[in-house]
Amino acid sequence: MSSDITVARVIAKLPSRFQADAAENLNAIFQFLLEDDDNFYITINEQSCTTTQGEHHDPSITLLMDAETFINVVTGQQDGMSAFMKGQLRAEGNVILATKLGKLFKDKSQDHTSA
């Protein structure tokens, strides 16, 4: 894994990895509260995706973890369910939505090309 992967870079790339067809009939706010980094949320609405820094006033689901766990799950180094079972990730709200996250974003971990 490259040491230059940061939460900010991951957040910036999420909209380009979004799979609109997987979000049909889904309107949800995924709040991420990171213990040691900036909080942000993802808005999925009408098959579009936006990311926003900060905290949403009424998220559909809130995911709590540290930055390392977030990066490991997003890059595929750790399974989200594994992180949950180990107590590294907590979910509040509509926890069923957490299971949909993997299908909403393309896995680019297989793409090791460099510019």
Automatic annotation (TrEMBL):
Domain of life: Bacteria
Pfam family, one: SCP2
GO cellular component: cytosol
Annotated SCP2 domain residues: 19-106
Identification of the protein by name: SCP-2 sterol transfer family protein
